[in-house]
Amino acid sequence: MHEMSLAENMLQIIEDAAHQQGFTRVRTVWLEIGQLACVEQESLRFGFDVVARGSIAEHARLEIVEEAGQGWCEKCAQNFPLTALYEACPECGSYDIKVTGGDGMRVKELEVE
Amino acid sequence: MCTTCGCGIGQTLINGKPLHKPRQHGGPMRFRAHEADTHAPDVCVGDVSASRIVKLEQDLLAKNNGYAEANRRYLLAHGIFALNLVSSPGSGKTTLLVKTIEALNGTQPLAVIEGDQQTENDAARIRTAGAPAIQINTGKGCHLDAQMVGQAMQRLGLQDDSLLLIENVGNLVCPASFDLGEAHKVVILSVTEGEDKPLKYPDMFRAASLMLLNKCDLLPYLDFDADLAIDYANRINPKLQVVRISASSGAGMAEWLEWIREGCRNAVAAKPEVSFG
Lengths: 113, 277
Known about the structure:
The complex is a heterodimer.
Chain A: H1 3-21, E1 26-34, H2 41-51, E2 61-67, E3 70-73, E4 78-81, E5 97-101, E6 105-112
Parallel strand pairs in A: 1-2
Antiparallel strand pairs in A: 1-6, 3-4, 3-5
Chain B: E1 13-14, E2 17-18, E3 52-59, H1 62-77, E4 81-87, H2 93-104, E5 110-116, H3 121-129, E6 133-137, H4 146-156, E7 163-167, E8 184-190, H5 197-200, H6 202-207, E9 210-214, H7 226-236, E10 241-244, H8 253-269
Parallel strand pairs in B: 4-7, 4-8, 5-6, 5-7, 8-9, 9-10
Antiparallel strand pairs in B: 1-2, 1-6
């Protein structure tokens, strides 16, 4: 369950931002998770609840924004929505697909006080 | 896992000694100091002030990727070819590693980093095979990360122009996301598993450069369709190279060893000239 490591990283990003920007409490965290990212959202929520205990982000609301997956077909040279890594190009059926979007995980913004 | 807050810090061991984590647990961190008698933050939540929005746009894997890049720069500068071996538990990784070491011994300097949740058994097997090895025990952790590997590299004292084999924790999911600074991930799939594993666990097959289809000596006794497994793996990753291999019979080992030797030659050739001043 690497979601626990990801949750720790998330808290570290928040704490680093708190040092730099001088806030002492986090109310909301907006997290963007790609549809194709290797992460289980519910595990990440659980992990964050656990690691945030006793921190400035304790009880912070976690808003997960899902970013749609996108693929680029090397044969047809066009983008199309990709919902799973094993999908073929809807135009030509090729599996020679490059993932061009929706495989990242980032902390987008925070509501702080 | 830490019983105070649930984090994974403090459980990782390298050859039985705790991993040095500079910025966490006792470092200059202001908000999560465990040395306090309570687990409360040392911040004072004063007046309720108006909230504001802070834009961050920061990747969750940025910290790991930073350590991985540092490892990669070190490896490049020293002409070291590093491979990250990943698979499910029981695919025959350690046996393959032992056979690989025995075959390369004397002709190719090499070292091994072993990742397992518990025990030093695998590092001991590797040392018996004749290679220096360091064991990382991740505790409850399900993958190696670049910081652990960077510290293990330092403790191993790697030779210039050598081969570094990193055996990741047996897990086909989590290690896919964590770059260690290696040249390539090598995924090992054994024929005693299902053909559709590449479709079920696509991230790892997408991240790998080479797939070793292991235990091929058992194919006559199984229903496993090797062509179908390879077809599935190439659907996920059309550029994935495949070698059919049996670590115990030795079939396919020559092709795997030549792939390694070529990588080592390229790493040495890519080593920058030493500059003084």
